[in-house]
Write a structure and sequence with these properties.
The protein is an alpha+beta fold and 344 residues long. The chain has two domains: 200 residues, Phosphoribosyl-aminoimidazole Synthetase, Chain A, domain 2; 127 residues, 2-Layer Sandwich (60s Ribosomal Protein L30, Chain: A). It contains ten helices and 13 strands. The strands form two sheets. Strands 8-10-7-11-9-12-13 form a seven-stranded mixed beta sheet, with helices on both faces. Strands 1, 2, 3, 4, 5 and 6 form a six-stranded mixed beta sheet that branches. Helix 4 runs parallel beside helix 5 and helix 4 runs parallel beside helix 7. The longest helix has 20 residues.
Length: 344
């Protein structure tokens, strides 16, 4: 049995110094809130307030004179595809779907392209078939139209570049008033986490870069649970029960919150789950969790709505004026674009 099949979280020690973990991971180019390619500290325009020319900055496009809006998103993956192409294909679609839903869009259609495939290789043929079946399953679960029901691919003759699955999704926006942005909006808003957290650091940036473990199984993922969660999120947005929504993504909960906090120079005060290891809670990338902010006035209605539908939800804490606190310990203050100021 290969190493990635036998890895468990018990094989790595839980870090004693969160500051060191954060400093180390902020240096990862695609996680750093400020880099030359993606300046997460720049405030994404509010699609309710900007004009047609500016909507594209939020991945939202007005395509005709009648004001109809669509949202477009593209995701790619090769590391997870090599481990289990059937599940990895479902995960990449789920990640795109939840991003669209958290913008307030209704995902409607997708297309897929598999890059760098040596189709003469039997193993590559198996990968293509498994990925296609995974995409079919995801399209069915999320009720997506799938372009031609097949994957387009290009030919590669063992050039050293691994097969990469690229998925593009488009979503329609029925009501401009239901558009959301992920950024934290106001000091005092409650921060809650929808979905169940598992003791899982598999396939995470934390495991890959901080612990330098390059072989791992896929993170926790359940397609049926993800589909149910997306339907619930659509209702929450229609009922205007959330102020912002952001799927837990690359870097885990901590970096999701950091990306959401920087645009408005706000911070967050959160408490971790005592039943989950701190590193898994903060840096694990298990699919099926969404961070939302909710006003005091709507918190009870929000929680009651989820409880009635048997959707797990926990209160993380609240939005601060700029300080970052975890488990009553201060990690300094957010200074727009300068994450190295986060210190104990």
């Amino acid at each position: 049995m290969s190493e990635n099949e036998t890895f468990t979280i018990d094989q790595v020690a839980e870090p004693e110094d969160l500051q060191n973990v954060i400093y180390s991971m902020v240096a990862i180019p695609h996680l750093s809130p400020v880099n030359i390619f993606n300046d997460f500290a720049s405030a994404m325009p509010d699609p309710k307030e900007v004009g047609k020319e500016d909507l594209s900055e939020a991945g939202i496009f007005q395509i005709d004179s009648e004001g109809k809006l669509f949202s477009l998103i593209i995701y790619a993956d090769h590391r997870r595809l090599a481990i289990d192409p059937f599940v990895a294909a479902q995960i990449i679609v789920a990640k795109a779907v939840r991003r669209l839903v958290c913008y307030g869009a209704e995902p409607t259609a997708m297309s897929a392209f598999l890059n760098n495939v040596d189709i003469a290789n039997p193993l590559a043929q198996e990968l293509v078939v498994a990925a296609r079946l995974g995409l079919d399953a995801a399209a069915s679960a999320f009720k997506l139209q799938f372009s031609h029901r097949k994957i387009y691919y290009d030919y590669s003759n063992d050039n050293g570049i691994p097969p990469t699955l690229i998925v593009s999704l488009v979503g329609k926006i029925e009501n401009r008033e239901h558009l959301l942005t992920p950024k934290l909006k106001e000091k005092g808003h409650n921060i809650l986490l929808i979905g169940r957290t598992f003791n899982d650091i598999n396939a995470s940036e934390y495991l890959d870069h901080y612990h330098e473990i390059k072989e791992w199984p896929l993170m926790h993922f359940n397609l049926a649970t993800e589909s149910k969660l997306m339907n619930v999120m659509k209702e929450l947005i229609k009922k205007e029960l959330v102020v912002s929504a952001s799927p837990v993504g690359m870097g885990g909960l901590f970096f999701t919150l950091l990306r959401d906090a920087l645009p408005n120079d706000l911070g967050f005060d959160i408490t971790t789950d005592a039943e989950i290891s701190t590193d898994a809670f903060l840096f694990g990338e298990g699919i099926g969790r969404i961070v939302v902010t909710v006003s005091d006035e709507k918190e009870d209605e929000f929680v009651d709505f989820l409880v009635a539908r048997k959707i797990p939800v926990i209160t993380l804490g609240h939005v601060t004026k700029g300080e970052i606190r975890i488990d009553d310990k201060s990690f300094g203050f957010v200074d727009k674009g300068v994450t190295s100021d986060i210190e104990v």
